Amino acid sequence: MRTPDDQRIPRTGEPIRIVAVDDHSLLRDALCQLLNAEDDLRVVAEADTSVGLGDLVASTGAHVVLLDVEMPRHHAPTVVSELTARFPRLRVLMLSMHDHLPLVQELLARGAHGYLHKSAPRASLLSAIRGVTAHDPQVMIVLPCSATPGAAFSPAGSSLSPREREVLTQVAGALSNRQIANELGITEATVKRHLRNIFEKLGAASRIGAVNKAVEARLIDPAAKAKQPAPRQPAPRQPAPRQPAVQRPTPFAELAFRRVV
């Protein structure tokens, strides 16, 4: 006889039951349509909040929860801890627009079985869901290569990631958070996350202090300290026609490994 928690493991030939949790309705609807198009996957419930999520998992017998990292009235590490404590065999996959590696570390330590960037390829998401519910489940991480996911398992105090160096180089050029976000094509919230991580790694209390410490440690170009934002040149009255830019897909790194208990 199967116990309630044993039901978190799909039987052979049984569809994987999924609960999708995201406060952005358009994205959630698209995600559910994508998953329900697969013969072996079934979205049994969706929600725009993690409030009451444990009871929803219990009532649906879900095998997997796809959980957005940032939502109102939601602290992702706490929610993951509560779910995995109540349902030890439940698989929780985190979805996020952020590649903040300390956050990835914390969520995996709390019991999450995967962390996927929301712009990851469709095939990576499907592979992650099937991988974490397999007989020999794996922990899945899918992040842009620029996030250097291998660093998520480096000792604390390791050198800055390439993206953190980019942010700090922009800081050295006296750019504001908004300007940095525009330059790097990320959100201001992501810039702030990177800065908090930079301050923690370098033991700095200010932007200037972080720049000085990074220059001393040769983590960024010393010449960056003297750089200022270049003034914008007025556009010519009759600009030459430009060829459309070629959109190149973002390279992703996909890691799969067994959790060591």
Major sheet size, sense and barrel closure: 7 strands, mixed
Over the alpha carbons, how many angstroms does the gyration radius reach?
21 Å
> Which segments are poorly predicted (pLDDT under 50) over 5 or more consecutive residues?
148-158
Main sheet strand line-up: 2-1-3-4-5-6-7
Please count the beta strands (DSSP E, at least 2 residues each). Answer: 7
Structural class, from helix and strand content?
alpha/beta
Strand content: 15-25%
Q: Compute the separation of the termini in Å.
A: 26 Å
Form type: elongated
Helix content: 25-40%
Helix count from the secondary structure assignment? 9
- The average pLDDT score comes to 80
- Tell me the series of helices and strands, N- to C-terminal: EHEHEHEHEHEHHHHE
